[in-house]
Design brief:
This protein has about 190 residues and is α/β, with parallel strands linked by helices. Helix content is about 35%, strand content about 15%. Bound molecules: adenosine-5'-triphosphate and magnesium ion.
Length: about 190
């Protein structure tokens, strides 16, 4: 049997407006960060103030989006020293994660941004480098006009709970699994 086109209007009529939202992009498939950056484009298009804090990744990493989103007015900070398997001293990485979290906390509470993206924040949360309960409480008590976008694999349950929208990217296939290296312009 073939599918039938829907004839009932699926749009809800009983909705309310929120002054801000919490979004989480998680899962083991590709697209968590890029979906977040896409949302930032929408925010910038509306003239909103946008902040990005990248955990784990270092300042000299420079994903392609950094230059463009900065040109469009986003405030961007990468506070980390790269992949944990490349790190010379994990205590240093942990300290940088805590520094990034301090910057994130300011961004969430100051009211200076309509959207703040916390890219790859799930990793330091899961590794105990930053206090996950504090992150969740700060998100809950953030400035009421500040939307938050969190990305990273294995979003902790309490982060999922505080979120309004949670999307899990599922890895159906990834070029890397077939031995194809990350590609500039596509992967970073
Ligand atoms: P992207 O930045 O492309 O949206 P992501 O944020 O979902 O990816 P990360 O875990 O942050 O994924 O990975 C960053 C890099 O790893 C990107 O180059 C991405 O293409 C690659 N990557 C993402 N998912 C996978 C996967 N399942 N296997 C291998 N590499 C992946
Ligand atoms: Mg990512």
């Amino acid at each position: 049997m073939t599918d039938q086109p829907p004839i009932e209007d699926p749009i809800r009529r009983d909705t309310t407006a929120a002054s801000s939202l919490v979004l989480v992009n998680t899962g083991d498939g590709k697209g968590k960060s890029t979906a977040g950056f896409g949302t930032l484009l929408r925010a910038l298009a509306r003239g909103w103030r946008v902040g990005v804090i990248q955990f784990i990744k270092s300042g000299d990493w420079r994903v392609g989006e950094e230059q463009l989103l900065t040109q469009l007015g986003a405030e961007w900070r990468s506070i980390g020293d790269g992949f944990s398997w490349d790190a010379e001293d994990l205590e240093v990485s942990k300290g940088l994660a805590q520094e990034a979290w301090a910057a994130a906390r300011d961004a969430l509470t100051s009211g200076d941004f309509e959207v703040v993206m916390l890219d790859e924040i799930t990793y330091p949360m899961n590794w105990g480098w930053i206090d996950a309960a504090d992150v969740v409480a700060t998100i809950r008590e953030r400035h009421e006009q500040t939307t938050v976008i969190c990305t990273g694999r294995d979003a902790p349950d309490e982060l999922v709970e505080v979120a309004d929208t949670v999307t899990e990217m599922r890895n159906v296939k990834h070029a890397y699994d077939q031995g194809i290296q990350a590609r500039r312009g596509i992967d970073y």
